[in-house]
Amino acid sequence: MEALKSIWNSITDVVDDIVNAIVLLLPDSPFKDIEIPAEVKELFGYVNYFVPVGAMLTIGTAWLTAIGVYYLYQTILRWARTIK
User: Fold this and answer.
1) What angle, 0 to 180 degrees and rounded to 10, lies between the N-to-C axes of helices 38-50 and 53-79?
2) What does the pLDDT look like over 28-79, one tens digit per residue?
3) Beta-strand runs (E) in the chain
4) How far apart are CA 65 and CA 68, in angstroms?
5) What sign does the CA torsion over 15, 16, 21, 24 have?
6) Whether 60 contacts 68, CB under 8 Å
7) What is the helix (H) or strand (E) element at residue 33, kind and residue range?
8) Do 73 and 64 touch, CB atoms closer than 8 A?
9) What is the SS3 string spanning the chain?
């Protein structure tokens, strides 16, 4: 059992190194140096009081995830020729 655990850890270490190397090749975000002015932040606070943007994003994300899972499940069933 220890040998299997050691092999699994080695495989995950290699995959982790590969993913880190790929991420290092990606460019930095061009938006990291953009600072939002205080007046705009205050305005967003007032807008968010009437239009709950955070809640809308949460609900939209959940909806898109549910739709994505549905289509993925449907595609897998089609590949397995369970449905037409």
Assistant:
1) 70
2) 888 888 888 999 989 988 998 899 988 999 999 999 999 999 999 999 988 8
3) none
4) 5
5) positive
6) no
7) none
8) no
9) CHHHHHHHHHHHHHHHHHHHHHHHHCCCCCCCCCCCCHHHHHHHHHHHHHCCHHHHHHHHHHHHHHHHHHHHHHHHHHHCCCCC
Token reading at 20:
């880190």
Note if the pTM is more than 0.85.
no
Q: Are 67 and 75 in contact (CB under 8 A)?
A: no
d(Cα 60, Cα 27) in Å, to the nearest integer? 28
Q: Which positions ≥6 away from 83 have C-beta within 8 Å?
A: 74, 77
